Each structure stands twice: as C-alpha cells, then as structure tokens.
Amino acid sequence: MEATHDVLVVGAGCAGMRAAIEAHDLGADVALLSKIHPVRSHSGAAEGGINAALGNASEDSPEEHAFDTVKGSDYLGDQDAIQILCDEAPGDVYQLEHWGAVFSRTDEGRIAQRPFGAAGEPRTAFAADITGHVLIHVLYEQVMKRDLQVYEEFFAWKLVIDDDRCQGVIAWDLLNGGLKTIGAKTVVLATGGAGRLYTGTTNAYACTGDGMAMALRAGVPLKDMEMMQFHPTTLAPTGVLITEGCRGEGAYLLNSEGERFLKNYAPNAMELASRDVISRAEQVEIDEGRGVDGNVLLDLRHLGAEKILERLHGTRELSMTFAGVDPIHEPIPVRPGAHYHMGGVDTDHELGITELEGLYAAGECACVSVHGANRLGGNALMETITYGRRAGAAAADWALTHTTVAVPPAVESDAERELKTLLGRTKGERPWQIRDELARTMHENFGVFRRENQMKEQERIVDYLRERYENVVVEDKGEVFNNDLTQALELGYLLDLASCMVVAGLERKESRGAHARPYDYPDRDDEKFMKHTIVRWVGDHPVLDWKPVTMTKWQPQERKY
Amino acid sequence: MTEAADIHSWDGPTMDVALKIWRVDEDGERDLVSYELEAPEWACLLDVLDLIKDRHDGTLAYRKSCRMMICGSCGMRMDGRAVLACKERMKPIVEAGHVPTISPMGNLPIIKDLVVDMGPFWQKIRDVKPWLDPGYDEASERERIVSQQQMNVIHKEALCIMCGCCVSECNAMEADPDFRGPAALAKGMRFVGDARDQATVERLNEYNDEHGIWDCTRCYFCNERCPKGVDPRDAIAKLGAESVKEGVDWDMGVKHAKWFVTSTKTTGWLRETELVPKTQGILSALKETKFALALARRGKVPPPGPIHVAADVDEARNLYDLVKEQGRDGALGIVQGEKALAQIEHVLAADPDHAPASRISPEESGGKSAGSEA
C-alpha cells in the first residue's frame, strides 16, 4: 500500500475539490486522486452559470427554485433532495464569492444573475460564460491554500473492498507506471459523467464514467441511467458546447426558414424552455427538413457586439474556432449533443451515502437525485458544490470515528494479474474501433428519440462490442505515461454503462424528461413509472430494479413551457 | 457558414495530412518521425494526434481532455511555437502544403513524447500565494459588493487556463530558470488587481524580488503565444504600475521606471544622463564613470549646463495630473487602454462609420479602495 488517508476523494472537479476542502476543514486527513490535474477537470468547461435563489435580479426564493427543479425533472427528482439543494445553494454561492470567485456583477455590485431555461426567475449566477472555469480555479486555489495532497495523473481502476467496506482505491500511476494502492477509511467518488458514450458530446475525453463503473463492479447499484441529457446548442461535428447563457441573454433559435420555431413547441418560454423540450424541437425541425445541414441556427446578432464581448466572449471564441462563425455577424449552427448524465451512483438524498459502507458519491457521477429525468441548466454546478460539501462532510465524520484501513494482499495481487493479462495480449483488436462504434450506435439508437426496436438492437450491439472488448490489445507496454492502457480501461467502463442504460431505457415504457418514446409511449405514465430505475451488475450482466421517488409537496402536473 | 460533416463518422470531405513529431522515449532518446494520414477536413491538430495514436502508433504520448480550449491539457509546440493542439485547425496548413513539426513545450522537462513535467510550472504558481487573502476569517452572510468595473481589472488574468504555453516560450526563463515566469505573475496580478484581496503590498514586495517582475525581458512572446488572450506581459506591466503606485519602489526596475515619469513631468523629456544614478544610486553609478567619460569623449552625452525644458512641458504635466486625478495610474490605466482598443477593433469592424466609444468616465473607473463588505 502506497499510503493511507482518512478520506480519499476520487476525481478533482468541482464536486471532488469541494468535498476534499470540507473534509479537510472538519479535521480529516484528505487526499484527492485524479487521472488529470484538477484544473483540467471537465467542470471547468461549464459555461452558463450556477443556480441559487440570491434574489439579486428579481424577487426569488429557494421554494421557487425547488418548484422549477421538480417540474424540470419531470417529477422524477426526489423532492426532499431538491429542497436541500435549493435551500443551501445561496450560502454555498456566497462561500465561493468569499473564496474569490470572479462572478459577474450587477449595477449594485452584487453577484449578477441571468435567466436560464425553465427557471421562473433570473436565478443563474455567472462569471461571463466561463463560470465553471472560474469555479474550478477558485476551488483549486483553496486546495493549494490548504496544501492538500493530490495524486495527480493517477487513474483509478478498482475500489478496494474488505469487510464489506470500501477501504481505498487501486490506481495506475500514469507518470511513473505501476499500480498503486491508496488506502482510505472512506472514499468519495466524484468522477463526473460519461458523455464519451456518444459521438456528438459536449463532454471531454476524460468523461468516461469511471466512478459509476467502478461502483457498479463493486456491487453498488446505479440509478436512472437511461436519463442522458441532450444539450440543445452544440457545435457540429464533435459537439463543443455553446452555452445556454446565449439564450439567457436573449439569443433566438431559428430554422432554415428564419422562423423562431419554438413558438410551435413552447410558446410561453420559447428559447428558455427546458433542455429536453428544446432538443426534441430541434430534432423534429431537422428531421422534417427545416434544418441547415443538420443544424438549426442560434442567432445572437441582435444582442450587439458589446454584450457579446462582455458576457459571451468565450462563446464567440469557440464558434469562431470550431465553426468559423463570428456570432456578432452570423448565426451559429447548433444541434443537440449528449451533455449530462442525470443518472449515476445511487445515493441517499442527504449525504451522498451509497449502499457500500465507506463509499460516497457526489456530482455528476452520483444520482441523488436532484435532476430526475431532466436537469435544469445551472443546477449541475450547484449540485457539485452543495452535495460535494455534504458528501465530504459525511465521509470525514465517518472516517474520524473509525480507525482501521485494511487492504488484503489478494486484492492487490488479483489486480496485478488482471493487468498483466491485458498488457500481455499481443494479438487482437485495438480499442478505437469498438469505442467509435459504441459512440456512433448509442447516438443512433439511444439518442434524443428512442424506439423499442432500436434500443433492442443497441442491446445486441453493446453485447457484441463487449465480446470484442475481451480481446482488445494495448499497444503501449511501457510504464511512462501509458495512456494507451488507461484509454482501453476507460472503454471497458463505457461498455458497462451502456449496458445499464439500454436495459433501463427498454423497461421505462413511457416518455419522461430525456427519455422520449414518441412512437410507442408518447406520454408520461405517473401511475406506473414515477419511480427510479436501479441497475445492478450480477454475474456478467445488468439486472433492473425500481425504487420509489420521494414526493413532498409538489404533486405531478402536466409539464408545459 | 461552414459545411457540416456528418455527426456519425467522417463521411464528409477528408484531407491528407503530413506532419513530423519529435518522439522522446523514457530514456530521453529523441527521434523525428514522419506521419502521413487521412483526416476529416474539420480536424484540428489534436484530432490528427488521436488518429495517429489509434491507427498508427498506440505508444504516442500527449495530454488531452476538453478539446475546447478550456482545460489547458494539450499545450505543445508546432513549428517551434507553443499552441493548444485542440485550437489549431489543420486545413489551412494542409492547403499550404506545409508539413509542420510537433514537439513538446519548452522550458519544462520532457517526460515522454509531447508530455512535459508540469511540476516546476505548478511550483511557481504556488510561490505567488495563489489564493485570495480576504483579510478576515469569518465571512459575512452575503457577497461582498464589488463593481463590475473593479472586476474588469482582472478580466484577462482570470481567463488563464494554466496550459503553460507562455512559460514554454519565455525567453527570460530560458536564461534564468528561477524567473517566476509569465503564468505565475499573471496569477499574481489576478490577486493584486482584485479589489477584495487585502495583501497587495505584501504580494508586490514578493513579486518585486530577485526573480520577479523586473526580470522580464519584454520580448512579448507570452502575449503572442497565449491561446486565451491573457496577455501575461501586460499583467507584468500592471504589477509594475501597481508597484509604483503602492510605493513598492526599492527595486532598480521601479526606480528606472519612475525616473521616466519624473523626468518628463519636470522637463518634458527624458534626461538620460541622470537615469543611471537615479536607477542604481550614486555609489553604484560612480562605478560607471569610466564608461560615461568614454561616451562623453564620443559626443554621446549632452554637455552639462542649464537644464533644457521643453517648450510644451505643460502638456506632459497636464497629462501626469490627469492620470493621477482620474486614478488611471496603476493597473487600471493599462486595463482601460486595453478595453478601449478592443472596442475600437470590434465596434469599427461591425460599423466602420461608428466612432469608438467615448472614454470611460472617472466615476466608472472604480479602483482598489472601493471594495467593501455587505
């Protein structure tokens, strides 16, 4: 064993760093472990903002925030969890400001807030269109201030489980090579999402669902895995994100006829309807021939150069670089792209506690669930902070009252043997074809709209790809910066998660939030399906179960924007 | 409008890309390897590296993550110039018939291929105490009141993604590896310029040290190569201006700069003969006597005698007074200059008949002292 800590946080994005800071401040010996340097984490790519009812731009309340979130979730979010998030969000945002976050400001010098999709009030606090960047750097500043240990470029591979407790992680040390075991009394998973399951995704190469898959393999169930959000404004061909903040600042979505087509789908909220609604509307426009080369158009021109330069500077930079379009002068071609996993490791509604003692989860890799079937823009960053803090505190509390860490030698030697087998294989397929086929077929068969036969086909495809994966060859046999190895391991994670998603998607025989089945089950069915899907890995395949949704004061109603 | 490639593959147009990569193995052996491959027309350098790694050589090592210019992982050199691989479009390069050479960033130890050891980079960042010193332990219940104008002072520095491109290109660092360097100093300015930070003078004293702001050679390579428009050299200039303003003036660099101001304010021109003693002090300047005499013999030193005062010296003095009066000394003046230039560029591009926006009024200009709690 390399070292032991009270708390080991795996993943060092916003949720992971927030958890580590909290655990440290409560007196625990904490370490972060991440396959990339903390500031490289994909939280930094969040653009539009973070939701909290600060009331700086209008009268607002946590109650209204909670209602918008419940409705946005298409009533699959757990209302007790949502209440916690919305009540604690303002305090958590003030904390970030006091740490030095460079928020944009109102004329009165308070934190500025902009309108965002499906929000009743302008509630999204922001730093121009680089809010995630600002937050990840302010959190890393606080990590440096506390001199927290970071296992940088350590690829987490396996959870160590002994005595029915999670007691650490086995990781591949990218810079120096070799498997390293880091023991810990508690482990917090904060590894983010798995957007790399799709060809067109806003997600970074690093977003391969590592934490979800590690938990799954350790017997911990995943929740609501069919719920993958498609963001309405991503750039062709690879899916680079154009922020919802554009529409928050007043941008229009136009079809090839120059029409603001949302009037036919969401006549009241128009461009500020929820993401699932807008992505579906775009897809219909494109499918029915009113797109422009497979896109619709995001028009910012009427906002004027000054506003674009001050508040959407990063968006302009992205669209000029990746689409060759200056939004001051031309509309940006955009399309839906895979963006955010509402599903993830099943936790309790308060503290990120999982079924496995000593294991916690927070951020996108967790499913608390505050987002249900559709996340509101600006709620993800907020969840990373509020639930990152809560999970960090809970992990520290438990660690400080328990004393031992044990890693049985067999756990390490089994991992060594498995690795040796993988690296020893010289004949077989390179991973990239499997990876590309997985992403392409998930996009085709498990995208914005879902058909029974396509999902069944996808189930077969994933099984077939899993078989091929058994013979995958890692070409790099070296010790130093062998990310050929880690990329092969990531593909294994993605394949496991795809199986879980398809199984859950097939069984949810209704349309709710991101799970749209207009061809066979066009309506939401609260009687049968107002419940979470739960997937466990048993033997060599996923097994589906259900879990009730917690409802407090908001009865389901028809969802219109 | 650009043509959109099919999302599912690259059925769209492709191109034949050729490039050379400096491969460096675990023992430091170097080899320039050529690659030729087919890639979609939309490919950037990073996409091409991915294709090489997938289909040609799985041992090629480089860092990547977001592929949208925000994570800062993929800094490397293309033809000796630091770039983010995800930002460099290959099509114009291919069309020009050019075969670029890819190599790791400079001024940092190479680990393998295009992967460098960022350890020294981060150590320098840590050395500037890169966290806000709010001057209190218990935060108030709500946010502090700070104007947008005050926050604008650090707008550019806050854009930094810590990719290391500026450090790679820093000439001063090449000569003195201990130089704090452009990234760390820009990070320093991010706090010195933050109205909420209460450690300004302490920071400035530290950043004025032996390997600090005055060791910058002003080659401007960092500004030129920064992929995010942070302009680290300008950040260093802002730290210099803040040092003068805050009276952190013990370094020769500050004294040198101050003499320019004093000289032009009093006589309207730069009295170079006095520059050396004013910068180095009288004793140190005496050591240069021999050199000064040699200059004088060749007629390079103006004769002593009544000090010449420029006819329009009042213009220089008015300018000085105006800057002081409006609080435009220190970093703010540089920031306002940058903003005005950006406005001219974009407003004129959109509407050539439209005159540049008028100057920002002094009331709007904010300033460090106004940061308060609420």
Task: Please write the string of helix (H) and strand (E) elements of chain B.
Answer: EEHEEHEEEHHHHHHHHHHHHHH
Q: Overall mean pLDDT score of chain A? A: 97
User: Going by CATH, what is the homologous superfamily of the largest domain in chain A?
Assistant: FAD/NAD(P)-binding domain
Which CATH top level class of the domain at 119-250 in chain B fits? Mainly Alpha
Which radius of gyration of chain B do the C-alpha atoms yield? 25 Å
N→C terminal distance of chain A: 55 Å
Number of helical segments with 4 or more residues of chain A: 15
Flag low-confidence runs of chain A.
none
Number of DSSP E strands of chain B = 7
Strand content of chain A: 15-25%
Task: Outline the secondary-structure elements.
The complex is a heterodimer of chains A (561) and B (374).
Chain A: E1 3-10, H1 14-25, E2 30-34, E3 50-51, H2 62-72, H3 79-99, E4 113-114, E5 124-125, H4 131-145, E6 149-152, E7 154-162, E8 165-173, E9 179-189, H5 210-217, E10 222-223, E11 228-235, E12 240-241, H6 245-248, E13 252-254, H7 275-287, E14 296-299, H8 305-311, H9 313-322, E15 332-341, E16 344-346, E17 359-361, E18 366-367, H10 379-400, H11 409-424, H12 431-445, H13 452-469, H14 483-507, H15 526-529, E19 531-538, E20 541-548
Parallel strand pairs in A: 1-2, 1-9, 2-6, 9-17, 16-18
Antiparallel strand pairs in A: 3-5, 4-5, 7-8, 8-9, 10-16, 10-19, 11-12, 11-15, 13-14, 14-15, 19-20
Chain B: E1 14-24, E2 30-40, H1 45-55, E3 75-78, E4 81-84, H2 91-95, E5 101-103, E6 110-112, E7 115-116, H3 119-127, H4 148-152, H5 165-169, H6 171-175, H7 182-192, H8 200-207, H9 221-225, H10 232-245, H11 252-267, H12 272-280, H13 282-286, H14 289-297, H15 313-325, H16 331-350
Parallel strand pairs in B: 1-5
Antiparallel strand pairs in B: 1-2, 3-4, 3-5, 6-7
